[in-house]
Write a structure and sequence with these properties.
The complex is a heterotrimer of chains A (179), B (124) and C (143). Chain A is 70% helix and 0% strand. Chain A is mainly α. Classes of the chains: A mainly alpha (179), B mainly alpha (124), C mainly alpha (143).
Amino acid sequence: MIERYLDIAVLVLVFSIAVMIVRSKNLFTVVIMGSIFSIFCALIYLIMGAPDVALTEAAVGACATTCILLASLKHFKEDTSLSKWRVISLIVFITLFVVLSYFTISIHPYGSVDAITNKGVVEYYKQTSGNEIGLLSLVNAILASYRGFDTFGETVVIFAAGLCIILILGTKNKINNEK
Amino acid sequence: MNTTLIEYLPYILCIAIICTGLYGTTNSSNYLKKLVSLSILQSGVILFFIAIAKVKDGQIPILACLDFKQCPEQLINPLPHVLMLTAIVVGVATLAVGLALIIRIKEEYGTIEENTLIEAEQND
Amino acid sequence: MKNKVLITVTRFILPFIIAFSFYIQINGSNAPGGGFQAGVIMASAFMLYSIVFGYRSALTFMPFKALKILAILGIMLYGGTGIACMIMGGEFLNYNMIRNNLTTGQMLGISVIEWGVGLTVFATFSLGYYAFITRGGNEHNID
């Protein structure tokens, strides 16, 4: 029974951290809270049974994103102001939340065994992946062999993003107090 | 009705995180806060996909033996995990490009607050 | 300003982080892990060294040119595996054609492409961090 409420408890914690990020005045708070948000998201991926995604989120969100945000924070002033509450904006977002929740209730309940997303090509992967590919890790077999072309595209996208950063910022900069 | 709501509560909380990120993106006046709120929105979407894939009393998607018929067991759906691995890394790459653009905006106009920036752009 | 606690702890823990990243890269086929995670963890080790010891000493052993070559090498490994499969008579990225035994071919192809992905991710994250940190900012202290 505690397992049923553990997911919901950590999700409520994550939601409150998200609200704290949106309603904060200091940019340094935003960066550090973003790192804490990523760590708790990694915890909840682990509770929901996704160890690959938890490892990736912990490494990327808590280490790499925080370092890059801190490295860019030295360019900015740290204080910002909160915008006033606008009534029309609140009405729009609450309507959006209600409409999305109404349509979410029509999918299968959380954790149900005979969900429609578990049928189809996933059954084929489970049955034949061990014999055809020979890897024990199902996620890596799908990522690298069955959907290998998508992974190729993703790697090229990461390389293109690195290329964009070098094009925008440049690598031959003289810092103010050098030489 | 109460038991039905408890079973759908993880989905509704994920949608609340998505709406919070969207609110932060549209109603912040600072560009850095807009970017971090966008990253919250993305994390909410990924949470939703991982919540769909969960099976009660299911094992994590690592096979126990190579032939599935010899040790059959109830596995968690591995396909959304694969798609979300791609999504996380691409998301952080686009966050880095956005930060590079913000640094250049700051060097050109001297500010990253939205109201001041619009005035500075009109006077330019 | 040199902080003795940070320097001592970093000298002690940095080899473990690098060894952990290699462990996750190699055990991608039987455990959670693979190329992406290993690349990001290695980039995190690099960022930690650059934060504690200063970016100039990090630049001496991994200059910009080496990172650019590593990034391209990763993608060429991936594409090269695909083209090697085409040369041996199959479609692009069909690992069955590399060896006579089908599962051995699959495992070999998957290992090579995971190394390619790890190299590219490490090089890109390190390159992005370098570009941010060497851009002159005059608001706060740099080192």
